[in-house]
Amino acid sequence: MINPINPLSLYTFSLELFLYVGLFSFRFDRRRFFVPRLLLSLSLIVGYTLLWDLGNGILAVDIPCYTLLFLLAIGLIYFCFDIPFLSSVFLATAGYTCQHFTYKAIQIFLLWIEIGIPSLRDNGILANVIYILFYLVFIPFFYFFFARKIKARDEELMNNRRTILIAVVILLGATTMNLFFENAIEPFDQVSLFLVCSFYDLLCSILALFFLFQLFFQGKMLREYKERRNLWAQEKKQLEINKENFDYLMILAHDLKHIVEDIDASSQSERVKELNSRLLAFGSALKTGNESLDLVLAERKQNMDRNKIAITVMADGSCLSFLSPTDCYALFMNLIDNAIEALLQVEDSNARSLSLSIRKEMGLVFIHEENPYQGTIAFQNGRPLSKKTDGFPHGIGVSSMQRVCSSYGGEITFHAKNGVFSVDIVLDPEKSRDKDGIA
């Protein structure tokens, strides 16, 4: 069986390995003087490959050479990208695993073809075509299912020493045994043994990837849980503070209104009249029948008035009584704030309007909010993506709304069509799972 483009040579192996390493690491922040660093690293690797043929085929030399190349991959990542050392080990291990998996898959496929069609045996052109096709398939595959899930802010999730050590031992053990197998087994004379050993290599590669990304995905879920729990705690605290302040302001506004009214109308200045109108507006805040919802609307009213945002509310707040005050506040706070943020981007102030309706039918609570928007809104998995690019994580507000909905046996959907963005929420009061927030 011919080896496609002589993959046992360090030249080709280096290209394959660093192609996959780049696939996993390109998203991360680069160190200063990245290009000179990268060129220096590649020059070192090219110089290293010039010595490879001195030991090609000799196990005592090949095994250390492959191991050293793996260490060079770790060093290249750490030298060029601004990430912790253990994260470099994680990325290099992932790249090495994908390269080894692809190489063994090519070998198995070539053996299957050459056994079925003996005339194609030792056909170098066929081997090279299959080699290229496999990489064109496997590179997008590993990117879609693994590499793209690693973001620039995820380096802290890749620092579990024990898990990385297990993955490295499995990988290096598999590649070392593979060198023994390929030197001791003739594929066409010992087909069954060769296939068993090859599938063993594939299994070890899968195990190594499993250990690495099981760690990664668990860490990501834990981080998201902590973020949501912290957000819920902040929302609860904010509700308590805002309610206390609001109650105080309502009392103060009531007292001030009577003081202003006692001033002789003929002697009132324009400033006093303006103050009186503002006090009347503050005192006539929307009353929906739900204290938390009223608080959200009252807090946002000044901002909406200042930015010429009209609001229409048709809400029976009493049907929200099954919601905990914190959940109700969080749900509508995020809903209204997201709408205001979108409306501020609408250049025509006359078009800035927000409508909110809440009703109960057939035992379910239906909430509908809609507002115009400007530009385009991208969606991912049914969720609108934030347009903010300040480097901080966004979309937590949407996650908070989804958390509240799922806690009360409901669902939330987002739509954007013909310049109108809308949110529809359905809640089932009878299916409340957690009325006190995140457990």
Question: What is the total tally of β strands?
Answer: 7
- Largest beta-sheet details: 5 strands, mixed
Along the chain, the helix and strand elements come as: HHHHHHHHHEHEEEEHEE
The geometry reads as elongated
What's the tally of helices? 11
Arithmetic mean of pLDDT: 77
Q: Runs with pLDDT <50, length 5+?
A: 4-8, 389-394, 434-439
Secondary-structure content class: alpha+beta
Q: Whole-number radius of gyration?
A: 32 Å
Q: Please state roughly what percent of the residues sit in beta strands, choosing from under 5%, 5-15%, 15-25%, 25-35%, 35-45% or over 45%.
A: 5-15%
**Straight-line distance between termini:** 59 Å
Q: How does the SSE layout of this entry go?
A:
Blueprint: H1 10-25, H2 34-49, H3 59-80, H4 85-116, H5 124-145, H6 161-184, H7 191-262, H8 270-283, H9 291-306, E1 310-315, H10 325-343, E2 353-361, E3 364-372, E4 379-380, E5 383-384, H11 396-407, E6 411-417, E7 420-427
Parallel strand pairs: 1-2
Antiparallel strand pairs: 2-3, 3-7, 4-5, 6-7
